[in-house]
């Protein structure tokens, strides 16, 4: 349905209970189950997929081609192609994406900024902020 190109394999894992302090750069796929303080960046010249699981916490900027979040991110999120927010996703920061899939229960405390041709839309700064809240009943 949405850009069904073959995704890169997940070759790296930060296990639950692990903690990384510092910037983390990767290519191909990364699954994050632990916590990371610093920026997480998928290399721009290679396909990348980042999975932030339910147990994961990231404090810093997140950037990759395809990002799947079901944990917590405190910082901006930039998905160059696709962003999937699963039910337990909690983001505090602005989010930019080309394609967005957001499940009921996911929350974003920040701006949602769609990318047009790989760049933020020209009028992204001019639009009023829209605040959304999910009904968790």
What's the quick description here?
The chain is an all-beta fold. It has one domain (10-120).
Note down, in words, how this protein is organized.
- This protein has one domain (10-120).
- The termini are far apart.
- Strands 1, 3, 4, 6, 7, 9, 11, 13, 14, 16 and 17 form an 11-stranded mixed sheet that branches.
- The mean pLDDT is 88.
- A hairpin with a 2-residue loop joins strand 16 and strand 17.
- It has strands spanning 10-14, 19-21, 24-26, 28-32, 35-37, 40-42, 48-52, 57-59, 62-69, 72-74, 77-85, 90-92, 95-97, 99-102, 107-109, 112-116, 119-120.
- The protein is built from no helices and 17 strands.
- Helices cover 0% and strands 51% of the residues.
- By secondary structure, it is mostly beta strands.
Helix/sheet category: mainly beta
Instruction: Please count the helical segments.
Output: 0
Question: Helix proportion of residues, in percent?
Answer: under 10%
State the separation between the terminal residues, measured CA to CA: 29 Å
Largest sheet: 11 strands, mixed
Overall mean confidence score, pLDDT: 88
Low-confidence stretches: none
Query: What general form does the structure show?
Result: globular
Order of helices and strands: EEEEEEEEEEEEEEEEE
**What Rg, in angstroms, do the CA atoms define?**
14 Å
Count of discrete domains? 1
Proportion of residues in β-strands:
over 45%
State the total count of DSSP E strands: 17
């Amino acid at each position: 349905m949405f850009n069904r190109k073959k995704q890169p394999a997940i070759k790296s894992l930060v296990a639950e209970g692990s903690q990384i302090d510092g910037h983390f750069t990767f290519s191909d796929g990364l699954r994050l189950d632990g916590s990371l303080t610093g920026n997480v960046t998928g290399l721009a010249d290679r396909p990348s997929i980042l999975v932030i699981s339910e147990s994961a916490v990231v404090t810093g900027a997140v950037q990759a081609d395809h990002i799947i979040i079901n944990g917590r991110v405190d910082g901006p999120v930039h998905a160059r192609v696709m962003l999937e927010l699963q039910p337990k996703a909690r983001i505090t920061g602005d989010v930019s994406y080309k394609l967005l899939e957001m499940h009921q229960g996911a929350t974003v405390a920040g701006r949602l900024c769609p990318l047009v041709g790989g760049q933020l839309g020209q009028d992204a700064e001019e639009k009023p902020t829209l605040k959304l809240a999910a009904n968790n009943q």
